[in-house]
Write a structure and sequence with these properties.
The protein is mainly alpha-helical. Helices cover 54% and strands 1% of the residues. It is globular.
């Protein structure tokens, strides 16, 4: 028997655009799926535009679940208990709440407004950027006092020493929106693909909004930084002469959405706490799959590609997923060995669409972990931010008597030793092969910065160790959520 579920792709308090009401095509969703439970009739009555879902369509299943979570949240959401695992007592809604020394978790929860859950839950209040505002495009996101300086920076957006932290300040925290829109316009992609500016604007606003800016590292500024790095790689001769406009569009969108809705904890944390995302993706590339499906959800919600033939739109979603999935660090060696084999055999042919896609995967991987290759002033800031996110996860694990994940114990690790290990075993092999592929001034500059940064962290090691020993008693009292994460399954394309 087939049950018809409706897809609330828009907040329930907003009018439904015509393109949503006129959606074509049906997807079947089997009623045998018990993961999400039986729908509440009161919820079903609020849904618009009935669409049948096929159980074989994972994306439709995922977005239906996303819609259910949003509906439940508006009538009062209780933390879900999807199993009897004792660690599910962790309230993920307050994962990022910094508790003051004298306050209890319960007190803090009442003081701080909860804007989102660990996954799916977008801000329910109106966005300060778009929601609740009449669609008067273009909207001005730059403060008049700073717009000139921000525009001046955008003229040098291809420079490797681009200061994304300063740019974020000059755009009043809207670096991801401003940068991505600028690059799409610079390439002429808005006109070429006939993108509706209202839909594009709303898509970028929702993307930026769905990053958790409570995360020290995995936030919208990191996404903007990766997008800027991706642009630098797209400008390299090997790529600029070969990539199509379609490839460039995919590359920029993947960079902007590659960590969408990142919870600030890593995959092992989700697995050992029996989080439902880990169950949904069978403990495989949990976060990357979630980033991808969240991006697809926003594409469909805004109808950004609704004017394209359905087959083209579906292909774009799949290839976007292939790029995002390539950022899984757990598959680093697989991608690197394939890349090395291509280079050894000189078998990369960039006139081949599959090979171009693989190079885009490698470019995104480089952009995602390029922090050690930035100038010291920028690299040091990123290193401190990502390490703080690791340590915050470790603090949560200690608080709930979980085994502390590697690199997440602030009492036994320092920023320097973590960064030196990361450069030695992850970054240097990857960027060494990238320099073989694209032997340019940029690739040599990145290797040079990484060597200097590694030496700088080595010189700071004794100092960091001494500071760590002095502050050890107070470090154990920290509380709040966050941590790295990047797991990366194989992309759908094979070279």
């Amino acid at each position: 028997m087939e049950v018809c579920y409706q897809l609330p792709v828009l907040p329930l308090d907003r009018p439904v655009p015509k393109h949503v009401l006129s959606r074509r095509g049906a997807i079947s969703f089997s009623s045998s799926s018990s993961l999400f439970g039986a729908p509440d009739p009161r919820q079903l009555s609020q849904r618009r535009g009935a669409i049948s879902y096929d159980s074989s369509d994972q994306t439709a299943l995922y977005i239906r679940m996303l819609g259910d979570v949003r509906v439940r949240s508006q009538v009062g959401f209780e933390p879900e208990r999807r199993s009897s695992h004792p660690y599910l007592c962790i309230d993920f809604r307050t994962l990022h709440t910094r508790l003051s020394c004298g306050s209890s978790p319960a007190d803090s929860g009442t003081e701080k407004r909860v804007h989102r859950l660990l996954s799916f839950q977008r801000y329910l209040h109106s966005s300060r950027l778009l929601r609740g505002i009449p669609q008067q495009i273009p909207l001005h996101i730059l403060d008049e006092d700073y717009s000139g300086q921000a525009r001046c920076m955008l003229e040098k957006v291809g420079n490797w020493n681009f200061d994304i932290f300063l740019f974020d300040k000059l755009t009043n925290g809207n670096s991801l929106i401003t940068l991505t829109l600028h690059l799409l316009n610079q390439y002429g992609l808005v006109d070429l693909f006939q993108l509706d500016m209202v839909k594009l604007w709303r898509f970028l606003v929702l993307v930026q909004e769905d990053y958790h800016n409570d995360n020290p590292y995995h936030n919208s500024v990191h996404a903007a930084d990766v997008t800027q790095a991706m642009y630098c790689y797209l400008q390299e001769p090997m790529l600029s002469k070969s990539l199509t406009s379609y490839d460039i569009l995919l590359g920029l969108l993947a960079a902007a959405t590659h960590d969408l809705d990142h919870p600030g904890v890593n995959q092992p944390f989700l697995i050992k706490t029996d989080h439902y995302l880990a169950t949904l993706y069978r403990n495989t590339s949990v976060l990357e799959n979630h980033h991808w499906k969240s991006a697809v959800g926003l594409l469909r919600e805004t109808g950004l590609f609704s004017h394209l033939p359905p087959e083209d739109s579906m292909n774009m979603e799949r290839e976007l997923g292939s790029l995002i999935l390539a950022t899984d660090i757990s598959r680093q060696n697989d991608y690197l060995s394939r890349f090395r084999t291509h280079l050894d055999q000189e078998s990369l042919c960039l006139s081949n669409a599959s090979h171009r896609h693989f190079v885009l995967q490698m470019a995104l991987k480089c952009a995602d972990i390029c922090n050690p290759c930035r100038p010291w002033e920028l690299s040091k800031q990123w290193s401190e931010k990502v390490t703080e996110e690791f340590f915050e996860q470790g603090d949560i694990e200690k608080k709930h008597k979980l085994q502390v994940s590697p690199l997440c114990d602030r009492e036994t690790n320092t920023v320097g030793n973590i960064q030196i290990g990361f450069m030695t075993y992850v970054a240097e092999p990857l960027f060494g092969e990238w320099a073989r592929f694209s032997d340019t001034r940029l690739s040599q500059t990145m290797l040079g910065h990484m060597g200097l940064n590694k030496a700088s962290w080595g010189g700071l090691q004794p100092e960091q160790t001494a500071v760590s020993e002095e502050t050890e008693p107070s470090a154990a009292g920290a509380d709040a959520g966050g941590s790295r994460s990047k797991e990366i399954p194989q992309g759908s394309r094979e070279s």
